[in-house]
Amino acid sequence: MQKTSLIALARHELSQAKEASSGRSAKTVFGGHEHQLRQTLIALKAGESLAEHESSGEATLQVLEGRVLLRFGDLSWNGSPGDLLIIPDGLHSLDAIEASVILLTVVKKH
């Protein structure tokens, strides 16, 4: 069994993101190539984005800190701490309205 403090990890990754030229930092919390489930903690500086992309499987996004905007075509959803957003199947993007930390959970397609 493994235990991870998401609060401590969020604090660390947000600090890393603020120093990075890309304005982001990420750490896989669980999963990898040998697992179908992958959970990744992603930190973004305010104003940074994850450009339009497709998921590699079913996915959710849990906002741990800050405010984000998930875009899917003409639709968009605001996310604040404690919100769980279901990521639509298809091209989508994510904008950090404030310095933000999210937990991305993906179940890879077979």
From TrEMBL:
Protein known as: Cupin domain-containing protein
InterPro entries linked to this entry: RmlC-like_jellyroll (IPR014710), RmlC_Cupin_sf (IPR011051)
Organism from which the protein derives: Dermacoccus barathri
Lineage: superkingdom: Bacteria
